[in-house]
Amino acid sequence: MFWGFCEALNFIQQYQKKLSADESLPESLNILLFGSGDPRHILATASQLFLHPGLKVNVYLAEGCIELLARHMVLLAVAFEDPELLSLKGKTHLFMDLFGNNLIRPFSSAYLSSKAKELTDIITDAEYAQRQAPMFNYETLRYKERDQLENVFRFWTNAPEHVFNIARYWEDRLRVQLGERYNHRNGAFDWDLQMRLRENGAKQVCPQEYKHWRETGIAFTFPEYEQSDPNKTFAVGLVRNGKGFLHRGSVGDNMTGPYIAFGHKCAEERLSRSKHGVNDFRSTDVTERNVLQIVYEIQNRNPYCFDPKDIHQYGAHQLDAGKNLNKHEARTESAEAIHYNKPLLRCENLSIHFLSVEDVLRMHEMERFAGKFDVVFVASNYLGLVKDGFSRAWKESCLVCFETRQLTVFSKEEIKEHTDKIKAFAQKESLAAVTNFSINKNHSVLLYKRAGNK
Q1: pTM higher than 0.70, yes or no?
Q2: Distance from C-alpha of 308 to C-alpha of 319, rounded to nearest angstrom
Q3: Mind listing the pLDDT tens digit for each residue in 388-411?
Q4: Are the C-beta atoms of residues 176 and 351 closer than 8 Å to each other?
Q5: What residues make up the domain containing 37?
Q6: What is the CATH number of the domain that holds 395?
Q7: Does a structural domain hold residue 229?
Q8: What are the start-end ranges of the E strands in 98-187?
Q9: How many domains are contained in the chain?
């Protein structure tokens, strides 16, 4: 729910794969992200836009709950934050904290609280939004949904009544999920990792990081940091209750983890080295490298040159992650808190459109989307929401990308069943494969195009 199960894709690069030698990119690309769960594809695409100065990219986000749209906003804000407020390393670790950790650093908590106030102003004042975050377009959101977004941002601010004891919710959910196996959970975690996740292809994930995440919900750890405050971006189903809020506790994935999006592959093969099943680098370290590249290229608009000194290397080490403080009380704002209210970095050829939650169920019948999209991405858990008529929203030259369940803890039978459903839909819609199925490898994403498109 809060992250996807395939790598971050640069959709400009993916679109180019289907073009013939005599074809070129169009002047603009309209991209639909149907339930992507996180902004990984937006960031991977945005970081390479400096290579295509004449190309306009419009991204349309369709998510099933309003809290996910809010989470997209804050994660994008981190990546596009003014460099006077955050260094590249600061952006990288802040992004990782908010993206994948149940408990976050006090610094991350203070940032979230301050940014929540800024985002409130952005979604309630169109003129202010144009100055501060012109890439955000929320015109299609209903007023009710804007009010809901405002409530989400209000909950993110640090106030005594905004309590979110996610450490307890996580443990309670784990106890129910494992039942009698709870007292032997370390073995259950190891089986899920070795016999499912790594067997399915996610070999970069290391035992020590995966088991720590399954136990605590903290995916990304570094020895210099200690996580203590609840990550309120994981709260969904928020409803006002006096000065406080009701919510659904802990929801979303608690078996695969947030490692695949940025921590599965990278350009440097040496980061994937392994000896006797022990990796030189954790998925956390690869995530750090990839996120650092993205924020560097967004900020500097030139290619990133990897330096091993920029990242950690803890693949073979069992880190003492420190005592998780599991705060029961909400943090209150300090008087000297920094205000993160500078305009986000400009990206003139990128626009992000936040679609109404109701559009998820009506995409197939909405006239304003007819023949709209050059690229469509369908998340694995949204395949069941793809209805007859969904293809009406595609252009004739559309690239259609389906996320599989390959890099998850699903069984091979479940993965195959899901992949077969994708292939059956592709056949029904007369789609031609862009993915090379003749290569003996498993795919986290299957790419198709209209069969009549050369």
Answers
A1: yes
A2: 20
A3: 999 999 999 999 999 999 999 999
A4: no
A5: 28-300
A6: 3.40.50.150
A7: yes
A8: 103-104, 136-137
A9: 2
